[in-house]
Amino acid sequence: MEITEAALLDATLRACRSLADAEGRDFVPPPLPLTVSRVIEACDAAESAKSFRSAVSLIQSNNKQVDSRRLFNPVFHFDDERFEDGRKVITDGLANIKASNRGENFETAREKLGEILHPLQDYYSHSNWVELGNEMPNDNLITVGTMIGNIDLTRPTCRDCVGDDCTNNILEDIIRDQILTSGYFGIFTSNKPAGKCSHGGRFD
């Protein structure tokens, strides 16, 4: 299942469970894997099936469009160690979503949600968060004024790959000192600073 759809179905299911608990109703979770149809049935929301499917599709579409509309903007992908700027995309987007919901502009809110889910997902795939041993999400990505991680832009972070083999190319002291870093992106050329990590494009 596509990661965005999986997250949306899981969040919807948790909301339905909370609502059922608040109303004193029994809630029977659907069998795995989750599907749109199974979540609709579990939430007893057959009358909303068409609009729910449309909402999921709209969010997914706007997520995917970030790669075509914002491909070369590193802050939408947490590339080039642009952590603070990437977090601002997410927190500004959350504020926009809340304002849109208050104004009952739900389609606008869904479009923005899809857009900011892209950098939120890219943070984990484009940085070394997992390599640092983290097994839980970084809650500070959605919280203004907090520390995203231990960031040192002046330090070398990676050794050169051997041909196409980039196995264990993050420097040992970066892992030891828990330094957060991300790759520098280039499609046609490599313009990364010396000693930094590549995103992994063909020519970078």
Give an account of the 3D structure:
This protein is elongated. It has helices at residues 3-22, 36-42, 49-69, 83-102, 106-126, 172-176. The longest helix has 21 residues, at 49-69. The chain has 204 residues and is mainly alpha-helical. The mean pLDDT is 93.
In short:
Helix content is 46%, strand content 0%. It has six helices and no strands.
- Helix/strand/pairing class, anyone? mainly alpha
Give the helix proportion (percent range). 40-55%
Distance between the termini: 30 Å
Report Rg. Answer: 20 Å
| Count of distinct strands | 0
Low-confidence stretches: none
How many helical elements? Answer: 6
Q: What is the 3D shape?
A: elongated
Please trace the helix and strand order, writing H or E for each element: HHHHHH
How big a fraction of the residues is strand?
A: under 5%
Q: What multimeric state do the chains show?
A: single chain
Largest sheet at a glance?
none
Kindly state the mean pLDDT as a whole number?
Answer: 93
Element layout with pairings:
Layout: H1 3-22, H2 36-42, H3 49-69, H4 83-102, H5 106-126, H6 172-176
Based on the model shown, name its key terms:
mainly alpha, elongated, 204 residues
